[in-house]
Automatic annotation (TrEMBL):
<dbReference type="GO" id="GO:0016747">
    <property type="term" value="F:acyltransferase activity, transferring groups other than amino-acyl groups"/>
</dbReference>
<dbReference type="InterPro" id="IPR000182">
    <property type="entry name" value="GNAT_dom"/>
</dbReference>
<dbReference type="InterPro" id="IPR016181">
    <property type="entry name" value="Acyl_CoA_acyltransferase"/>
</dbReference>
<dbReference type="Pfam" id="PF13302">
    <property type="entry name" value="Acetyltransf_3"/>
</dbReference>
<protein>
    <submittedName>
        <fullName>GNAT family N-acetyltransferase</fullName>
    </submittedName>
</protein>
<feature type="domain" description="N-acetyltransferase">
    <location>
        <begin position="3"/>
        <end position="151"/>
    </location>
</feature>
Amino acid sequence: MSLILRLCNEKDIDIVYKMANDSTVRENAFSGDAIPYDDHCRWYADSLANVDRIMYIAEERNVIVGQIRLDKQNNKAIISYSVEKNNRKKGYGKQILRSIKREAMLNGIVMLEGLVKKRNVASRKAFVHNGFIESEEENYFRYIYLLKSGDNIEIDKNSK
Ligand SMILES: CC(C)(COP(=O)(O)OP(=O)(O)OC[C@H]1O[C@@H](n2cnc3c(N)ncnc32)[C@H](O)[C@@H]1OP(=O)(O)O)[C@@H](O)C(=O)NCCC(=O)NCCS
């Protein structure tokens, strides 16, 4: 697998919208309503301009397979991510979380956090697979990862 994360740009507005409005993504989001396109356009422009929000597209051989976003709060970042629906269950979710560690380190982040609805088994497994520590809250699981030296080394593109 040769997955890369690249920064989102203006041209990605529609693919990010399509992934954000996917029915499974909405079900697993904490704000579950469908997103009107105009709202998305405002949000996307604000997000590109926001220095505390870093958005990536995940690609393999120039095919977009998912997206991941870091919302920085000082030296911590909250993760939001998804895999494009036709590419789920192929290991991309695990690979995207693995790849984001390097990007986070390069951006001065020391701690990553993900909040996952209890029924979202795939995401829970993807976080645990990547060494995040799980704790149970009332309505979700919290996953924490403290970045460590070595996480900034470029991943072997041939390994999952
Ligand atoms: C969550 C999501 C990103 C996982 O991505 P993915 O590429 O499908 O996941 P992977 O293929 O890496 O699989 C991760 C693990 O979950 C398992 N899995 C995948 N889909 C599953 C499903 N629907 N039900 C149960 N387990 C599932 C895989 O078998 C794998 O388990 P393993 O480590 O024991 O082999 C993807 O399902 C998605 O985009 N969902 C909608 C958005 C979302 O939920 N985002 C996360 C919000 S916290």
